[in-house]
Design a protein that fits this description.
With 174 residues, the chain is α/β, with parallel strands linked by helices. Helices cover 49% and strands 16% of the residues. It is built from nine helices and five strands; from the N terminus they run αβααβαββαααβαα. The longest helix has 20 residues, at 133-152. The termini are far apart.
Length: 174
């Protein structure tokens, strides 16, 4: 990402990760620090960043890739700090309450749009993105191109400030 910045190229992230292994070994190898460093670097980049949630974004690592000027999300994708099963285990000590956890997490594209976490929902073909790959590709390409064009035209200082303000305002619905 810092090389992209050096050469004044935008960063494009495709988010589709169910989450990293959460165990002592992962932390010993610096998983949490790597996520924190990524958040810090992306928040300060002086180039346009567009992230697209294309499947399951269910972890701190997925959230770290979402520090973007524009976050787009496919209609049937999910995006959250943890999977519903993990959240149910944490909140209720009962993994079978995943449905309740999913509702509490507000992880659907429609919920996240209302909360200001994402900027646009990319419609999917009937049956989901995998049912018509060409149509899916064309829609993602269209949304990505349109958003990149608008970001590239912005002043660099305004771009960074807008990214900062976007994250400060997230979740404020009233």
């Amino acid at each position: 990402m810092t090389q992209a910045e050096k050469f004044k190229r935008p960063v494009i992230c495709f988010i589709d990760t169910s989450g990293a292994y959460c165990g002592m070994g992962a932390e010993e190898r610096g998983q949490g620090e790597a996520i924190a460093r990524n958040l810090m670097v992306m928040s300060a980049l002086r180039i346009p960043i567009v992230s697209i949630v294309i499947g399951e974004g269910g972890s701190g690592g997925a959230l770290a890739l979402g520090v973007a000027n524009k976050v787009l999300m496919q209609e049937h994708a999910i995006f959250s700090v943890s999977s519903p099963e993990a959240a149910a285990s944490i909140l209720w000590k009962d993994g079978t309450k995943a449905k309740e956890a999913a509702e509490a997490l507000k992880l659907t594209a429609q919920d996240l749009m209302r909360l200001g976490v994402i900027d646009e929902i990319i419609p999917e073909p009937l049956g989901g993105a995998h049912s018509d790959l060409e149509s899916t590709y064309n829609k993602v390409d269209h949304y990505l191109e349109r958003n990149l064009k608008s970001l590239i035209e912005q002043d660099v200082d305004e771009l960074v400030q807008a990214r900062y303000e976007k994250f400060r305002a997230m979740g404020q619905t009233g």
